[in-house]
Amino acid sequence: MEPWDGPASIAFTDGRYIGAVLDRNGLRPSRYYLTTDNRVIMASEVGVLPVAPEMVKEKGRLQPGRMFLIDFEQGRMIPDEELKQQFSSRHPYAKWLDRHRIDLTDLVPQAPVPPDHKETLLARMRTFGYTVETLQFMLLPLVQEKRDPIGSMGNDSTLACLSDQPRLIYDYFKQLFAQVTNPAIDSIREDLIMSLECYIGPEKNLLCPTEEHCCRLKVTNPILLDEELIAIREMKQVGWQATTLDITFQKDEGELGLLTALHRLCREAEAAV
């Protein structure tokens, strides 16, 4: 599971093993009992099944990012440290990464810095849906005060489907249910647990790890600067070939033009791969 996945406590079994894994934030409770008569009881809360205190041999909770595993053939509970040591030592993963991983930061200095087109800034901001409210309440606190913007959760703006103003496409998609409340994610937890790092490039079979699996491009965050995008386009590494696809269409073609452009984009993407 990725650091930002969850909250989730997932149980699994294949007949020989039965276990569970908790998301790295630890936002879901998972508690277990190991009894003197060789029973293992695991649930989201204590007391789901009645167990006499004198029957409890061991008890605990599944910690963030940890695994809980029972091996029926060995007749024992395998500790998280032993389990991860067993899998992490199967292959020389560190050597594979050092040999094949590509860092975007190593590519950027090789790319020319594009000119700054200040005269078209306002037009581009309008194109991508920036408003006065976006600048005032979202961007300025980030740039001037280096803090997350704080504001009311209320939103009394018109629904995108009923608005007379141009709206971005994701404004048309809203949740149809009340979001389940979860513990707040503060900046300290974000710094310890979460990451914006992304790995892009050709993916191999996840169930059969090889050295080629590590031939990926490491990107520090999913928002690329102009020079970073140019660096990816001009990559010369073996096995890498970047292709630029045109996602525009004529405005006067309307809905049909959008649909035609989407089909064309899919065909070109498949052909490039």
Concise synopsis of the structure shown:
This protein is of the alpha+beta class and 273 residues long. Helices cover 27% and strands 15% of the residues. It folds into 3 domains: 9-88, no CATH class; 93-173 and 184-235, Alpha-Beta Barrel (TIM Barrel), CATH 3.20.20.70; 243-273, no CATH class.
Strands in their spatial order, largest beta sheet: 1-2-6-7
User: What is the rounded distance between the termini?
Assistant: 27 Å
Q: What's the average pLDDT?
A: 85
Count of discrete structural domains: 3
Largest sheet: 4 strands, antiparallel
So how many helices?
8
Radius of gyration: 26 Å
> Remind me, CATH topology of the largest domain?
TIM Barrel
| CATH class group of the largest domain | Alpha Beta
- Low-confidence parts lasting 5 or more residues at pLDDT below 50? none
Percent helix:
25-40%
Overall spatial form = extended
Number of strands: 10
What is the CATH-assigned architecture of the largest domain?
Answer: Alpha-Beta Barrel
| CATH homologous superfamily classification of the largest domain | Aldolase class I
SS content category: alpha+beta
Instruction: Give the amount of beta strand, in percent.
Output: 15-25%
In N-to-C order, the SSE pattern is: EEEEEEEHHEHHHHEEHH
